[in-house]
Amino acid sequence: MSTFLLEIGLEEIPAHLVTSSEAQLIARTTKFLSDHRLSVGHIQPYSTPRRLAVALIDVASQSEALSEEKRGPSIERAKNDNGEWSKAAQGFARGQGMTPENFEEHDGYVWLTKHTAGIPADTILANIGEEVVAQMKFTTYMKWANNAFLYVRPIRWLVALLDDVVIDFNILEVQTGRVTRGHRFLSNEHVTIADAESYSETLKAAYVIANAEARKAIIQSQLENIAHQNNWLLDLASDAAQDLLEEVNNIVEWPTAFSGSFDNKYLELPNEVLMTSMREHQRFFYVTNQSNELLPNFLSVRNGNSEHLDNVIAGNEKVLVARLEDAEFFYQEDQQKSIDESMTKVKKLVFHEKIGTVYEHMQRVGQLAASLADKLHFDDAQKVDLARASEIYKFDLMTGMVGEFDELQGIMGEHYAKLFGENSAVASAIREHYMPTSANGNIASTAVGAVLAIADKLDAIVTFFSADLIPSGSNDPYGLRRAANGVVRTLQSKQWHIALQPLLIEFVKSNGKVTEKADVTAIMTFMLDRVRKLALDGDVRPDIVAAGTALTPDGDVVYIADRTQTLANHASDDNFRDIIEALTRVSRLAMKQSAQGYVDESLFENQTEQTLFMATKEIDLKTIELQGGEAVYKVLAELQNPIAAYFDATMVNADDEVIKNNRYIQLHMIDKIISGMGDLEKIVIK
Hints:
Layout: E1 2-10, H1 15-35, E2 42-48, E3 51-59, E4 66-74, H2 75-78, H3 87-95, E5 104-106, E6 109-116, H4 121-125, H5 128-131, E7 155-162, E8 165-166, E9 170-171, E10 174-177, E11 179-181, E12 190-192, H6 199-205, H7 212-229, H8 239-249, E13 255-261, H9 271-282, E14 285-288, E15 294-303, H10 309-334, H11 339-346, E16 350-352, E17 356-357, H12 358-375, H13 380-392, H14 400-404, H15 411-419, H16 424-432, H17 447-466, H18 480-494, H19 500-509, H20 520-537, H21 542-548, H22 557-570, H23 576-592, H24 607-616, H25 621-625, H26 629-637, H27 640-649, H28 657-674
Parallel strand pairs: 7-10
Antiparallel strand pairs: 1-3, 1-7, 2-3, 4-6, 5-6, 7-8, 9-10, 11-12, 13-15, 14-15, 16-17
Helix pairs in contact: 9-10, 12-13, 12-17, 13-16, 13-17, 15-16, 16-17, 17-18, 18-20, 20-22, 21-22, 22-26, 23-27, 23-28, 24-27
C-alpha cells in the first residue's frame, strides 16, 4: 500500500477560514476517492496559516474494477420480423461501446454486462488538482495577477507525492513538485520532501507543526504549564476560550506561549472591558486568582521560538496598555454624561435608511413588548421595568466605550445603567436584549430581558421584510435568520405560548408605512423555517419535521416544536404506523368533500358511528394543546381503534345524500382535531 500527499501552499489564510477549509478539503477528497472507486485506509488532514494538506494512507494500487448490467430494449423491440437486431438494439449496444453479439436475453429484455477495469492510482490522482483543489469554495476570495481564477489566498506552491514519485498537474502555472516551505522566519524557505510518509517530520524539522490538532494540544499544554507555575487559574473550557484557542492555533506554525502583565490600576475597569481588550483585540488569554478575581496578567502565543521572547512580551504589553488607556479614558468620560444625553443622540442615529432611526425602532419595540407582557400576564412591577428598559435600552450605543469596543454593546449598557441608578431588572434587560448572540448562545435569563429581546428581534424582522430586505440563499446581511432563531429559542426556553401570527398582524396594521408592506404569511414561514432547522439539528426525521411544522394557523412556535418532537418520540412505537394510517385515512376522505353543519346522531346507521362520535365530541383541541403535544398525541392515539372499527362497518359515500353529508361532517370534525398534530399526511410510514 502507498501513501499520497497533497499540499496546497498559500499566502496566509485568515484564521477563521483555516479549520473550515481543512474540513472542506477532507470532504472533497473523500468524494473524489469515492467517485473514482479508489480505496484508502485513512485520510490525515493538515493545516497551518500557509498550507492545506491531506495525506492518504494505504492507497490502493488501482481503482476497484466494476461490472454493471445494463438493461436494453425489450426482446420484441430488439429484433425485427426477420429475427435481426433492430436499430434500437444496435443503438443501445453502440452506446455502451459494445456490439449485439454481447447481448444476453432474460426477463423479456436484452442485457449487456459492462466491465470497467481498474485504473492505476497515479492516473486517478493526477486529476485531484482539477477536481478537488480548483473546486474549493470559500466565503472570502482573492484575485491575483491577471487571473480570472479566485481562491482564498494566492497559491504559491503545490506538492503531490505518491510515495516518492511526483504526481504531475498544475494550477495557474504552479506546477506540483516535492518542495514545500518551512517556517517563514525560522527555516530555509525551500524544504524538500523525500516521500509522502516523511511530510510531517520534514516540516517539523523546518519549525512547522502541520497537524492542527497536535499544534493545538501543544499550545494548550504550554498555556496550562505557565498558569500552573504562577498559581493562576486559566479557563480554556468556555466557548469563548475554545474559539480563541482555535483562532490562535490558526495563526501560528511553531507555537511558543508566554505571559505578560499590566498595571494594577487597570483592574478598576469593568472585567468585561479588560477581557474584551485582551481576548477580542489582542488574542490574549486572561487569568484569575484562586478566588476567580481577574489578575493583571495575560497569556499569549507567538509564531516562533523562545529567542528574544522578552522583546516580544514587552511589545505585547505596550500594545495592550495602549488599549487599556483608551478604555480608561472612555470609561471616565462616559460617566460624565447622563442616559438622557445619550438618548438625545440616539434619536438621530439611523437604524436603516429605508426604515428610520434607532429611536423609532425602540418606540415600536416598546409597543410590541407591552403587548407581549399583557399576553404573558406580567405583574405591574414587571411592566414598569419593561417600559423603562424599552425607553433607554440602546443608550450605550452613544457611549465612547461602545464606540471603541462595539463587542460591549449591552454589557456596558447594563454597567452604566446601574451606575446611573437604574434598578437591576432594567439594567439586566439592557444587556439581555441582544441575547442569544449566536446560534447556540445563552438565552436571556430574566422575563423582562427575554420579552425585550423578542420584541427587538421581531420588529427588525417585520420592518426589514416590509422594506423588501429579505434574506435570500446564504445572503443575510442584517442577521434576520439569527434574529428569528433567537425569538424561537427564547420562546421555547421560557415555554411561552404566544400566537405570533395574530400578534404580528396587529403590529403591522398599527405602525403605518414602516410596516404596511410586511407579508405576515411570509414572515411566519421564515420563523417556522427556524423551528424546522432546530428540529433537524436535533436529528428529527425530515418527514416528521415537515408534518409537525405544517398547519400552523396561530403560529405558536413552542407548541409547534413540541408536537414535532412528540411525533419523533413516538415514531419507533410498535403502533405508530397503525395510528398514523388510521388518522390519515380520515384526513384523506375529509379532503374529498366539503361539509358544513353539526353531526346528527339520529342519522347513524351502526354502533361504530355512535362510538366514534362519543369518543370525539367532547374533545376541545385548544384546551388539550395547552397541555402539550404529548397530550394531543395521546388523545389521537386512542382514536385508532374506533376509527378502524368505523371504516370496517361504515360506507362513508352512502347512496342517501343526507346520510353521506352527515358522515362527512363527522369526518371533518375529527380531521380538525387531527390537525392539532400538524399534517400527518407528510409522515413516511416505515
